[in-house]
Amino acid sequence: MSGVTSIHLVENALLVSIQDDVTDTEIVDLQDSLSHRIAAESVRGVVLDISALEIVDTFVGRVIAQLAGISRLLDAETYVVGMRPAVAVTLVELGMYLPETRTALSLTHALSQLRRG
Question: Distance of CA 9 to CAs 14, 31, 38, 47, 115, Å?
Answer without folding.
Answer: 5, 16, 10, 10, 15
